[in-house]
Amino acid sequence: MKISIVIPVYNEAERLGACLEAIAAQTLPAHEVIVVDNNSTDNTVSITKRYPFARLLRETKQGVVYARNKGFDAATGEIIGRIDADTLLPGEWTGQIQAIFADKTITAVSGSPHYYDFAWSGIADSIDLRLRSHLARKLGVNNFLWGANMAVRRCAWQKIRADLCSQSAMHEDFDLGIHLQAHRYRVVYDESLVAGVSSRRIDTGFGAYVRYTLISPRTYAWHSLKSRRHMYPVLFVCWLGYLPGRLIYRSYNPATGVYSLSQLLSATSARVDPTTNTA
Hints:
With 279 residues, this protein is an alpha/beta fold.
């Protein structure tokens, strides 16, 4: 099975190079890598061009859902992998994807994160794993997809493509999973499919963080899925962990492995919320 990897990007110059390096190091090379630039104003495009194996596409309509669609529509592999620009794939990721999709009943899969830039990553990974596994069990046939570490069969994408939603304030990966399952395709969560991701989503104000997390049940609400009620206990745990999590993330320099007050107080530019960055 040929595997295409699609990466929607918007102003990701700081992270994209490491992401592409990790893809280049795969034991089983990807069939193709498609980077979809969504009107970046930094060096995202020039960084992409440094990697000859990466195919650069442009999507001028603002929004990760449109960039995602552009990349998925252009993909030619039987399996389409979808990751974020801050995703660092372990070397066996493509091989593991092939092994998972050897099961013909599986249409789409998403996995677990390893928070590579968080000081207490072991604890954070363990908590996330428990919450994600619990939620997958509760959601059952309305299972979620997670865009930083997922894959879907291209034939299924082509069949449900016209049904997908594109409004703002929505998680496009959750929407994809919902529509796949509405067509009776099987969407699974595999906790062994691990990919490195940044903890940067927590580096924002509490109000913005709460708003972002609430997009998950709201995406389900738009589709009249009562199973969204299972998300609220998980979100409550995330909200409780926000303050200590942000303090740990902000005070730690992963490059040096050192905590410092200056690091905590340093100015940073928060990642643009993908659910609001839509035309």
